[in-house]
Design brief:
Number of strands: 10
CATH class of the largest domain: Mainly Alpha
CATH topology of the largest domain: Butyryl-CoA Dehydrogenase, subunit A, domain 3
Helix content: 40-55%
CATH superfamily of the largest domain: Butyryl-CoA Dehydrogenase, subunit A, domain 3
Number of helices: 12
Bound molecules: flavin-adenine dinucleotide
Strand order of the largest sheet: 1-4-7-10
Order of helices and strands: HHHHHEEEEEEEEEEHHHHHHH
Number of domains: 3
Radius of gyration: 21 Å
Length: 386
């Protein structure tokens, strides 16, 4: 018997009505010249765009109405996110809060935290970052060294985070810190003990946000230096020492969405246009293969959305979607580059622009959110192979 499953999921009829609504909105945005389609959702953001879609009820869609949400299903959210990603919309500002931080607070936060943060997120007014990675701790997250020392009324946090996306534009970062020591359990050191998550105010005294430029020379991520930053105890998420369990519970949300295989979608779209009605055999072959892979990945990803909707935590299936999806989206620019008919032009056209942007961004797609080797370790464990 298979230990993982990808049951087929049909989108509900209301999903298709919603899709038409989102497409009409996107067409209006493009007609008004508000943004140009981008080739990596992680690098393009616009606070005014986030506020406009918030006005439509498209941030925090699945959250309860009492927190500003729309009480809609994961599958409806799926429709909205895949339409924005396929269109190359500038979703970066609200992305992390909508996908991860909000659901985390809904699940583990206190009522006061939910009331304080969720409505503001759904209005597109408050943006979040994730402070997990450190200079010597990426894949091996349990080795983080940022310390939160108990002080009167809260914690004093000292340490360095790295690759913190959008920290220069976000308001808060859900930050993984060490509040306690590792423990010895049955003769083995348990490094997952003593970790906690704090809601860190990125404008608090002692926080320095230093830019790190990506391969394309853009400022998306940062180094975050925390020098005795005071975080009040009411900003602890969940219980002290529960950080590891909480972090791993975010993974199915983080790893299975359409952003895990649509990063290079613009280049694929533009390639279809460039190849034309009667593509040469190499282009037709490449297009057929990529379309088949894209469709399969979408079905798998939708299946995970169906499981999340049913209240399950399909971490293994999500790791499979991210591993295969990351490999696919990273390959697309290379495959397209090797078969696309090239033309010399004085000005870059949408195909060349999308290709150039994808080539520079693709190396990061199999790193962010967990590297392929780490995902494969999770998959192997899930299959009982290690
Ligand atoms: C675009 C982008 C945005 C990011 N945004 C954020 C963010 O907002 N917040 C945040 O906290 N982090 C962020 N990250 C960091 C990301 O999570 C880490 O880069 C990732 O987890 C890998 O960690 P590392 O870079 O330290 O590499 P390492 O963990 O040092 O890995 C180096 C190499 O060794 C391999 N490796 C490591 N351990 C093993 C093992 N046990 N078995 C086999 N192979 C192994 C890895 O697969 C990799 O190939 C971002 C990264 C990128 C590229």
């Amino acid at each position: 018997m298979s230990v993982f499953r990808f049951d087929p999921v049909e989108l509900p009829p209301e999903g298709e009505a919603l899709r038409a609504e989102v497409r009409a909105f996107i067409a209006d945005e493009l007609a008004a010249g508000r943004w140009t389609p981008n080739s990596d959702f992680g690098s393009h953001r616009a606070a005014d765009f986030s506020r406009r879609i918030a006005g439509r009820g498209w941030i925090g869609m699945t959250w309860p109405k009492k927190y500003g949400g729309a009480d809609r299903s994961f599958l409806e959210r799926y429709v909205v996110t895949e339409e924005f990603l396929a269109a190359g919309a500038p979703v970066g500002c609200h992305w992390i809060a909508d996908r991860q931080s909000g659901p985390l607070l809904l699940r583990f936060g206190t009522e006061a935290q939910r009331e304080a943060f969720l409505p503001a997120i759904t209005r597109g007014e408050v943006f979040f970052s994730i402070g997990m990675s450190e200079p010597d701790s990426g894949s091996d997250l349990a080795s983080i060294r940022t310390r939160a020392r108990p002080v009167c009324g809260g914690y004093e946090v000292t340490g360095t985070k790295v690759w913190t996306s959008y920290a220069h534009e976000s308001h808060y970062a859900i930050t993984l810190v060490r509040t306690g020591d590792t423990a010895e359990v049955d003769g083995k050191i348990d490094r997952h003990r003593g970790l906690s998550q704090l809601i860190l105010d990125l404008k608090a005294p002692g926080v320095s946000v230093r830019p790190i430029l990506n391969l394309a020379g853009e400022h998306d991520f940062n180094e975050l230096v925390l020098d005795r930053v005071f975080v009040p105890s009411e900003r602890l998420v969940g219980g002290e020492g529960d950080g590891w369990g909480q972090v791993t519970s975010e993974l199915a949300f983080e790893r299975s969405g359409p952003e895990r295989f649509l990063s290079s979608h613009q280049v694929l779209r533009q390639f279809v246009r460039r190849a034309g009605e009667d593509p040469d055999p190499r282009a037709a072959d490449a297009l057929g293969r990529m379309a088949a892979q894209l469709w399969t990945l979408r079905q798998m990803s939708l299946s995970v959305a169906g499981m999340l909707q049913a209240g399950e935590m399909p971490n293994l299936e999500a790791a499979i979607v991210k591993d295969l999806g990351g490999a696919f989206e990273r390959d697309v620019p290379e495959r397209v580059r090797s078969v696309a008919p090239r033309r010399r032009r004085a000005d870059p056209d949408p195909f060349e622009t999308a290709l150039a942007e994808s080539v520079l961004h693709a190396p990061s797609w199999t790193l962010r959110g967990g590297t392929r080797e780490i995902l494969r370790g999770i998959i192997a464990r899930g299959l009982g192979l290690r």
